[in-house]
# Entry
Amino acid sequence: MKTGKGESHDAGRDAVAAIVSRETLDRLTLLAELLVKWQKTINLVAPASLPDLWSRHIADSLQLIHHVPENTRKWVDLGSGGGFPGLVVGAALAGREGADVHLVESDTRKAAFLREAARVADLPVTVHAQRIEQVAERLAPGTQVVSARALAPLPKLLDLAAPFLAAGALGLFPKGRDAEHELTDARKGWTLDLDLRPSASDPQGRILLVKDARRGAETTVTTPGVAAHAAGGPSGPDASRTKP
Ligand SMILES: C[S@@+](CC[C@H](N)C(=O)[O-])C[C@H]1O[C@@H](n2cnc3c(N)ncnc32)[C@H](O)[C@@H]1O
# Structure
């Protein structure tokens, strides 16, 4: 696989080059070049972030790989936009037998870019130019990881990702400085088993790992002489689905 001329460079590229194979770097370089080309006609990333494409988008996406089990093969990225993190995940998993990465993006022009990028860089990626709500039930079985970056605030994101989480997928959601607030909001309607980890690319960012999500607010129920921590409470909105 050859990379073309005019590679887009920023400081982040050197950091990425230090941790990935030559083949993965070549694939990422092809993606970066194509994005810069298409960005002239489609807004794939915020224009101001383009000079820092490698650090703001590629490295930021690549770090997610370090938070998933090593045997991960089926990964679904929701609202992929210009391919973050979906295309980067596709590049990172390209050498893995059975890798099966799905990108869901309803904007048909962005989806056309994603398909072309996957073809040019020879990625194990399938692009679905549809709404998440339309494909989720069909795509969910067997999905090991579901990711989404900058798609929606956490309560809405959990609704969109619910079919995948219910099927046992790990939710991987990079969040900005508002992560804690979003989490507080989400807990009004969900009982969550999660980790909040620091982002390696954004000092104020967090990566949310959702291991389990059940509808029903997490509440602390206190009755005389008994303190119980229950999802939705004993007569809460979804008491039938509470954890033991
Ligand atoms: C703000 S962009 C983020 C793109 C990318 N994940 C990133 O971080 O750069 C959100 C993307 O999600 C897509 N999107 C929003 N709602 C969607 C839905 N219900 N189904 C499919 N795509 C959706 C939009 O078209 C847009 O490209």
Remarks:
- The chain has one domain: 11-217.
- The pocket of S-adenosylmethionine is lined by residues 45, 79-82, 84, 104-107, 110, 131-133, 149-151 (CB under 6 Å).
- Residues 22-38 form the longest helix (17 residues).
